[in-house]
Write a structure and sequence with these properties.
It is a single chain. By secondary structure, this protein is mainly β. The protein is 0% helix and 46% strand. The chain has no helices and 22 strands. It has strands at 5-8, 12-15, 19-24, 28-31, 34-37, 41-46, 58-60, 64-67, 89-103, 111-114, 116-129, 132-135, 152-157, 164-167, 180-183, 187-192, 196-200, 202-205, 223-228, 239-241, 244-246, 250-255. Strands 3, 6, 9, 11, 13, 14, 16, 17, 19, 20 and 22 form an 11-stranded parallel β-sheet that branches. Strands 2-5-8-10-12-15-18-21 form an 8-stranded parallel β-sheet, with no helix packed on it. A 3-stranded parallel β-sheet has the order 1-4-7, with no helix packed on it. It is globular, with a radius of gyration of 17 Å.
Length: 261
């Protein structure tokens, strides 16, 4: 709620919730050294709250694990394609009009996002994402044409507000193969309508498995990096460089973007 102050630390476990943390109206929340498990939404931030790696006002430090070890128990969780209890979280972090979303630091304390439809989902929010691992952000089916894509590790729809998105840094941090690591994800990084985009030194490895008759299979390796309709208000440049991409059907898709690749 408004002006709340919450600290989550000390190996805490937040589990089996519709939204384990719901922060709005400039709530102050600090998160470190804890686990989010089997939540439909791990952390929801909206309306001028700020998720940042500094001590104020909304912090996600290192050593935070977002996962879904077994099927969800929360009452509003949907069923999967086999009408079984859904075995994936919906969104580990959801930020709506949150001004700035910072997740991770370039130090040896990474965050882990596993087994969800979205790792990080945002709308009208600046993004700075460093030193994170995304695994098994995948699913059986694709979204219909014209609808919001599903099974995306990092999704940002900025709606042409004056925000930037920085995914990765030339400094590796914890992982030896890249600043952020994406393994077995249907889609890697989708950024729509940002003023400035930097996607640097990320490791994306998600080979598509061979289908077999009569059974659904998790779809990996469709689109690694997609950017659409980035626009320039100032003298910012857009950079996509030094990324390792393997196994994706469409490695990089860029539309209507002033960029250096």
């Amino acid at each position: 709620g408004a002006n709340a102050n919450v600290i989550v630390d000390g190996n805490s476990i937040l589990q089996d919730a519709e939204a384990a943390i719901y922060a709005s109206d400039n709530a102050e929340v600090k998160i470190a050294n804890c686990t989010f498990n089997k939540n439909k939404i791990g952390v929801h931030i909206d309306y001028n709250s700020i998720l940042t790696t500094t001590a104020y006002p909304f912090s996600v430090f290192g050593n935070v694990q977002f996962t879904c070890a077994t099927s969800l128990n929360s009452p509003g969780s949907a069923l999967d394609v086999n009408n079984s209890a859904k075995a994936k979280s919906f969104r580990h972090i959801e930020a709506i009009k949150a001004n700035l979303l910072k997740v991770g630091l370039n130090i040896y304390q990474p965050n882990y996002f596993d087994n969800a439809e979205y790792g990080i989902y945002s709308e009208n929010t600046a993004l700075e994402i460093f030193n994170n691992s995304f695994t098994n952000i995948n699913g059986y089916v694709q979204a219909p044409i014209g609808s919001t894509p599903i099974y995306v590790a990092i999704y940002g729809d900025n709606n042409k507000t004056s925000f930037h998105a920085t995914i990765g840094n030339i400094v590796n941090g914890f992982f030896s193969n890249g600043n952020n690591v994406f393994i077995n994800c249907t889609n890697g990084i989708f950024l729509l309508e940002y003023e400035k985009i930097n996607i640097v030194n990320n490791f994306l490895d998600s080979p598509m498995p061979d289908p077999f008759p009569g059974a659904p299979f998790f779809r990996n390796g469709e689109r690694a990096i997609l950017t659409e309709n980035a626009f320039i208000i100032s003298d910012y440049s857009n950079i996509i460089e030094s990324n390792y991409i393997n196994g994706f059907d469409k490695p990089v898709i860029v539309t209507h973007l002033t960029t250096n690749i």
